[in-house]
Amino acid sequence: MGFDEEFDALRRGLLAHCYRMLGSHHDAEDVVQEVYLRARKGLAAFEGRSSVKTWLYRIATNASLTALNHGSRRVIPSGLGAPSDDPDTHDVEQLTTPWLEPLPDAALARAGVSDPVHVVLEQESVRLAFVAALQHLAPRQRAVLLLHEVSAWKVQEIAEALEISVPAVKSLLQRARSRLEEVRPAPADPPASAEVERELLDRWIRAFETTDIAAIEKLVHDDFAIEATGHRTWFRGIAVCLPFVERQLLQSPGELRLRATRANGQPAAASYRRDASGHYRATHLVVLTVVGDRIARSTNFPGADHVVAAGLPAVLPG
Question: Angle 232-234-238 (CA atoms, 0-180°, nearest 5)?
Fold first, then answer.
């Protein structure tokens, strides 16, 4: 197998790894391309003392660390402060901070195929809650944790890849685990089945397209949360979320169209709004977190680019 074939076989895993590190699908794509160019250039000097996979992940990790040196951590609103208790607020503060981005499942599929067992593990490690929690770790803590816990590297391998001592790796790993426990939501019910997720997503889409707030109420947990990147304000609890959805998000019947997709290994929907010409233009991607048999969270990512990255059109005919 030639280098290009080996790289293509590993591209999907590299993309997922860089996304976990960076919290940005677009930045991860750029780093994976950089990894390819650097590896291609350094191929003659590769001595084969490790596998090509280990070598490429080493390059990817260090390239991600370099990228993180030039930017702030990516966040979602719930990581910035307490929720609002006013569903009628118009003080939805906009921020220019770097925001966490979704990773469409279609983007991973374009990057390559994977065996079913690996796909399950991959999806668990790119779920929004986990990736959002990772952003609270210092870059080297993040790198050490991911290489050890997700990629199953030995401490010695990590030390060699990052050019630090074994005790330093152990210290970083301990601090990373401790910090992750502080910021990561506690495990709730077991993950929902694919069938349950599909049914909930279909019902969510119908409810929004028909502006049926009663149907939405039946789909969500009592402590349901809703947030959108770009704004500090977010909401939790149906007493606040449902009035907010009804008064500020729902449109007249026929104004919205939604299309089912998946992102971060979770059910998702692309949202379209009808314009003056009668066409429907993509506005944002909604990623749903399902716990048990209901929806626990809706995380909205404004921007048609997220919809297109999910393999869906930017415009639907009227």
Answer: 175
Q: Are residues 169 and 20 in the same domain?
A: yes
Predicted confidence (pLDDT) at residue 117 exceeds the cutoff of 60: no
Q: The domain containing residue 18 runs over which residues?
A: 3-71+101-183
Q: What is the length of the chain? A: 318
Are residues 125 and 8 part of one domain?
yes
- Position 161 in a domain: yes
SS3 content of the chain, % helix, strand, coil (to 5): 50, 20, 30
Same domain, 173 and 248: no
| pLDDT level of residue 273 (50, 70, 90 thresholds) | very high
Rounded Cα gap, residues 296 and 290, in angstroms: 6
**pLDDT of amino acid 114:** 63
Check residue 276 and report its DSSP letter.
Answer: T
Helices (H), 135-193: 139-145, 155-162, 166-183
Residue 280's CATH number: 3.10.450.50
**Count of domains for the chain:** 2
The rounded distance, in Å, linking the Cα atoms of 20 and 286 is 19
Q: What is the pLDDT of residue 89?
A: 83
* Contacts for 72 with CB less than 8 Å, ≥ 6 apart: 97, 98
How far CA 16 is from CA of 11, 132, 220, 262, in Å, comes to: 9, 14, 29, 15
